[in-house]
Fold Ribosome maturation factor RimM.
Amino acid sequence: MSSPEEEMLLAGKITGAYGIKGWVKLHAFTDPPENFFAFSRHQVVRRGQPEAIQFEDGRTQGKGLIARVVGVDTRTDAELLRGTEVWVPKAELPVLGPQDYYWHQLQGLQVWTEHEGQTLLLGVVDHLLETGANDVLVLRPCDGSIDKRERLIPYLPDDVVLEIDKEAGTMTVVWHPED
């Protein structure tokens, strides 16, 4: 179990039961999905309380993952976990290179663009979408943004995304404010 001050990140979700022996289907938010099993500790929140959970015999199955949960031996017990989010300690994430970012590090950044000699605030990164071709930043309006529109901007480093400054909480993009 994690300590109260340990920061946890959402790593996946249990989407249902698989088979009759307590296995579950998982949708992992890791890239690649198999990295979900690289964490030494997982936890879920049930009835408002964090609870340690252990996976064993996990593997890829179709477009998702399946795994057996320690202590869950029937399909009925596995079904009780359906919809449960699975969290992992942030401290266990691998260290990235200087120009690489985890999605959670981009959330909340103010997104700025230059247009006709003015620096304009487009909004803040709410979340990212995987589209297959490239990831997409979903911006929501914020105090000081040019309007109240939600924007979708492709996450293309060096093409659309020019600079990310985590310390300043900003991202600079090449994007027309009317797009």
Summary: The first helix runs from residue 75 to 79. The chain has a mean pLDDT of 91. The chain has two domains: 8-91, 103-173. The first strand starts at residue 8 and ends at 18.
